[in-house]
Amino acid sequence: MRRYFGIFVLVVLMSCGFAHGETIFAPGGIGYWDPGINARITALGGAGIAHFDTLYVHSNNPATWRSTGATRFTIGVDIERTSAKSPTGTDNSDEYSFPGATIALPIYKSLGIGLVYQILTDHEYLVLSRSQLQASPNDTVDFYDVVERNDGDGGLSRFGVMTGFGIKKLAIGVGMDVYLGKLDDLWTRSYNDSNIDSSGQVLRREMSGIGFRVGAIYSLNSKINVAGLVELPVSVKADATRRIEGGASFTEEGGMEFTVPLAVTLGATYTKKRWRFLGDVSMRAWENSTRDWGEFDTSRKYTDTFGIAAGIERLPSRGALDPWLQKWMYRAGFHYTQHYLEINDNIVPEIGFSIGFGKPLKTGAGAVDFTFGYTSRGTSAKNNISENIYYFQMGWTTWEKWFVRRER
Predict the structure, then answer these.
(1) pLDDT tops 90 at residue 365
(2) Does the structural domain 2-401 have CATH classification 2.30.42.10?
């Protein structure tokens, strides 16, 4: 048990230095909303709030933490390649990250508690633009090359404490989340071969907030589960520091506030023999979010987001003499969602496909999962910018059985 908790703390500390891959949609708000999840859930398109088993837990729905009976620990790594297209050209970037970690602890057979770390938003971006400024008559050149750089870093993460318990066919879970993060925005303008001073601005916002969530899973029968999850609004407050350079340089400090709005997710699973089908629909009410986030963000139009996720999973065979490939888990998934900021007065759609497989450990006490996926974000026709993301994710889940009478 101690080694799992130690690994969990280590992964959280390491993850604080990593974010998702760079995205051109990150500027504005608190970054691009892209919660990190484990490799199994990613392969299923992100669906799975209605599914509970003895190995996996869903980091978003605390009801999946009920009746654990085992200590379960999950970590993963995510490798992405992003190709962004804009009117100025195409840019490619490669990133890797730790999307999160979970550890579930059984308190009793029908009661479990857990810790979760999850990256929520991505604020990493880099936009360069070049132009020319006509020189004065006394200068030796006709034009100056002007380079503007917009650079962002950081994001928002959550540290959650979950608990779930079961009452016959009903599982109920509640969770408390501590939201922490930092956003850095850097803007600079330089004039090559010129006596004009460069200018720039740095805006740093250190964020914190506390939120709550409640989830439930109900088993209609041995094959069908239905579930609901409500994430209550969270007021994220930030200590802001702005430094302006160029001519007269100065630093100013102040406070800012942003509301992560109410979210509702509904899900269902259907299992027949060795096949499992999963589906979730979700909504987040961004239009009702209050924000005092600076002049740059005030003029942007926020829109409510809708998402759908669906997945299919082939379960492993339990036959001792079956071929080894029959003992693996195979998955495929699809998801559709939207960005909460409109670009060019149009929503930013995101569509993704994923496939994956899981290999149970020989000891039977866990699994290693692998996922490959593709995501298309935005459209050049409506948003003037678009991205193609290719990613590989690997995860490891292990467990130790508790509440078992040991032989002496």
Answers:
(1) no
(2) no
